[in-house]
Design a protein that fits this description.
Rossmann fold; 8-stranded mixed β-sheet; 423 residues; alpha/beta
């Protein structure tokens, strides 16, 4: 089939590569000319294992192209962002724009598939309404369905193939048609349902994780107050066969877990109380870490230099969307009494990025492990100690071995463990 994919971001581009390397002709559309130009040369501008090889292969064999404008196609897949607005409601501007962009090229018998994570009812009531006003009967003139991804950055190509998939159609005919399309590369099970159920399922998958993380973050704060090691609590509690506590941290980022629960709250704010509270708890963690930093540097007079290790929303990726560390940096900058230096080879921070950790940590008063990139696991702590003005660290991920850090002469502080207060 001829497939047109609107949006070549972290999901759209890998999806385009998968279809293009599994027998289809794919045209990728993006408003960012840099993305389009790179793809036309078989290159990518995001960081994802094996993706550039797949894109290069598809471009060379002529099954993958890119443009800023759509063409007549058999299938149109919308993979655009759905940002959160300041009032915590979904911004469907890109979904609307993407849908309207395909209208001049849409014909009876085509498929229209929304992959963008969206509030319940978006496929049927929002996209469907746009198609209906353009003269198409959704489910009859065109197949219309919602087919969300379930992938982990760093493993996207593998998980696009192996993970189970949900297809939610506006009717059974639409769901079955889209299921057949995705069977070309999905090796997991493909389940069909109606569109709003699929949307709610996608949101609840991430909401489940968000609530669990909020519980872990609240546990970490409680344990700091009570002089208990939250990480030990989690380790031993998870020995129970029906318990799976997640891990605490400096906050929740990414365009899924940090955003999706709000789409449910938006629809039923009076009922979604646990979901809303979990979001507030996780959104508050950068402020909590900020206050810990202030406590740990309270004895320092004058400007305090803080070295932050990691700024992306999760380890070993370049994705900074909704990263809680960005908010933490903003809090430190706004305070006025802190100088911050960031070390993160994955992130694009311009001139403020320091790649050499030993240079960055020089004369600092606190080193904060904010993101547990694998390269931060192999650090010469003795060299760090010699470079720092005040030899202390704050590990927000339980990533470093306390004994190793302290044997180098550094004061070790761990988010979720109140030992520095009670010992």
């Amino acid at each position: 089939m001829d497939i047109c994919i609107i949006g070549l971001g972290y999901i759209g581009l890998p999806t385009a590569a998968m279809f293009a390397t599994h027998g289809h002709n794919v045209l990728g559309i993006d408003v960012n000319k840099k993305v389009v130009d790179a793809l036309c040369q078989g290159k990518i501008i995001i960081e994802e294992p094996h993706l550039e090889e797949a894109v290069s292969k598809a471009v060379k064999q002529g099954s993958l192209r890119a443009s800023t404008e759509p063409e007549n196609s058999d299938v149109f897949i919308i993979c655009v962002p759905t940002p959160i607005m300041p009032d915590k409601t979904a911004d469907l501007t890109y979904v609307e724009s993407g849908t309207r962009k395909i209208l001049p090229y849409l014909k009876k018998g085509n498929m229209v598939i929304l992959e963008s994570t969206s509030p319940p009812g978006t496929t049927r009531d929002f996209v469907g309404d746009i198609l209906a006003k353009a003269g198409f009967v959704p489910g009859e003139d065109v197949h219309l369905a919602y087919c969300p991804e379930r992938v982990l950055p760093g493993r996207i190509l593998t998980e696009l193939k192996e993970n189970n998939r949900i297809v939610g159609g506006v009717n059974e005919k639409s769901a079955q048609a889209v299921k057949e399309l995705y069977k070309c590369f999905v090796k997991g099970e493909i389940y069909t349902t109606e569109a709003t159920t699929a949307e709610m399922c996608k949101l609840m998958e991430n909401t489940y994780r968000d609530v669990n993380i909020a519980l872990a973050n609240e546990l970490a704060i409680l344990c700091e107050k009570m002089g208990v090691n939250a990480w030990d609590v989690i380790k031993f509690a998870n020995k129970h066969p029906r318990v799976n506590l997640h891990m605490p941290g400096p906050g929740v980022g990414g365009h899924c877990i940090a955003v999706d629960p709000w789409f449910i709250v938006e629809k039923q704010p009076k009922i979604a109380k646990i979901i809303s509270l979990a979001r507030v708890t996780n959104d508050g963690m950068p402020h909590y870490v900020f206050n810990r930093i202030k406590e740990l540097t309270n004895d320092i007079k004058g400007k305090k230099k803080i070295c932050i290790l990691g700024v992306t929303y999760k380890p070993n990726v370049d994705d900074m969307r909704e990263s809680p560390i960005i908010e933490l940096l903003g809090l430190l900058d706004d305070q006025g009494s802190f100088e911050t230096v960031v070390v993160d080879k994955h992130a694009n921070l311009g001139d403020s990025k320091e790649k050499d950790i030993y240079e960055a940590v020089s004369d600092s008063h606190l080193m904060v492990l904010a993101v547990n990139h694998e390269e931060f696991g192999d650090i010469d702590f003795a060299k760090i100690k010699r470079a720092m003005k005040a030899p202390r660290v704050l590990d927000t991920r339980n990533f470093w071995d306390k004994e190793k850090v302290e044997s180098a002469g550094l004061e070790y502080n761990l988010l979720g463990w109140g030992r520095s207060v009670y010992e």
